[in-house]
Specification:
The protein has 415 residues and is an alpha/beta fold. Helix content is 43%, strand content 23%. It has three domains: 171 residues, MoaB/Mog-like domain (Molybdenum Cofactor Biosythetic Enzyme, Chain A, 3-Layer(aba) Sandwich); 78 residues, Alpha-Beta Plaits (2-Layer Sandwich); 153 residues, CinA-like (Maf protein, Alpha-Beta Complex). This is Putative competence-damage inducible protein.
Amino acid sequence: MNAEIVAVGTELLLGQITNTNGAYLAAKLAEIGINVYYQTVVGDNPQRLEQVLTIAEQRSDMVMTIGGLGPTEDDLTKQIVAKHLHERLVVDQAAQAKIDHQAQLTGRMQSANNQKQALKIEHAISLANHNGYAVGDLYLNDHGASYVLLPGPPAECLKMIESELMPALKQHRAEKQVYVSRVMRFVGIGESQLVTDLADLISTQSNPTIAPYAKAAEVTLRITASAVDDISANQLIDEIEDKILSIDGQYFYGHGDDFSLEAAVVAQLIKHHLTITAAESLTAGEFQSTIGRVPGVSAVFPGGFVTYANEAKQQLLAIPSEVIATHGVVSEQTAIWMAKQAKQQLNTDIAVSFTGVAGPDELEHQPAGTVWIGIAFKNQAPQAYLYHFNNGRQQIRARSVMSGLDLVRQRLNEK
C-alpha cells in the first residue's frame, strides 16, 4: 500500500509554518509498511484542493489530508473531500457532546462554525480528537483510494495519529499480516557511499524494504518486513541485516530510533571497565557534554578539560609553549599533546582531544572546517587524525564530536 500526504493551508505555502506533521505521519506509516511516495502542499482554495485530490487518488492507495478541519471559513477540507467522494456530512455525537460540554463550562454560546468541527463523513470511521474539537476521518474504500482527514495543529494531529489512526489502520489493513521495522545506525560513512555499497540489496528489495536516511554525521537504515507474525517478520529482517553487516558492518553501531553513538560508546567503556577524558579547544566542552547526557557515564568519565586559549593548554595540560609556537594550535602535534597530557593528568585509559578552526574566519592560514582529533589509548602511542568539515561553525563542532566518538568506538571494537 502507498499513501500520499496532502498538507492543506496557505500559511504552509507562504513559509509561515513548517509541516512537521507530514514528517511524523510518514515515519509512523513506514512502521506498518505503508509507503509515502508523494507529499503535496496546497493552499486554502477549494478548486485547487479538488485538483490535488483527483491527482493523488490516481497514483496512491490512500490520500491523507492534514489541516483545514477547524472552525474558520477557510477550513474547508472535510467539505471538499465529502463532495469529492459523493458522501454526506453527518454529526459525530461524541464530538458534538465534547463541544457542548466545553460551551457549558465557559458559558459561551456555540456558533455554527464551532459545531462544524463535529461533522464527519457519513461512512467514515471517526478519529477522536484528544487535544481539540475537530473530529478526524478514516474512509476505507475497497474500490478506490481510501482517505484520512487529520487536523492541522501539531498537538491535535500527532496525538490523533498515535492514539486513533495507527490502531485503526493496523486493525483494518486488508492483508492479515504484521509489519515490523528495525532501524540500523551507521557512522563514519556517508549516505551516498552506504547506498552505493548496498545497491544490489536496495535495487532488488521487496520484502523487507530498506529505506536510508541521512542525519547529522550519521546514516540510518529502516528495514521493514511484513509476515504472518512477529517472529517471521524478524527472521526476514535478520536475513537482510546479516547481508548488510557483511558489506558495511564496520560502520554499524546500534539499533533504534532513539539510540545514540554516545550511548554506544559509554556502554562499551563500561563493558571493558575503561575510563575516558577529553581536552577540548575547538569544541569547547561539547564532547564532554554529549557523553555526560548518558546515564551511568560517571562510572567511566571522571572529568576533563576545556582549553580554548593557548594559555589554558599550557597551564591546565602542561603542554610546552614551544609545541604550539613551532607547530601551531591547529596541528597534529598539538592534538597529540592535548590527548596525551589529558590522559596523564587524570590517569584515565583513554583521552580524546579536539583542536581546529570552527570559523567563520581562518586561523593560522587554515580554512574553517580544518579539524585535528587526537586519541591516546592505554598501551598505544597517541595519534591524531585530520578532518575537513563544512556547513557552518556549529555543524563543524557537532561533526567533530561525532567523529571523536567514532574514533573511540573503532578502537574499542578492536578489543
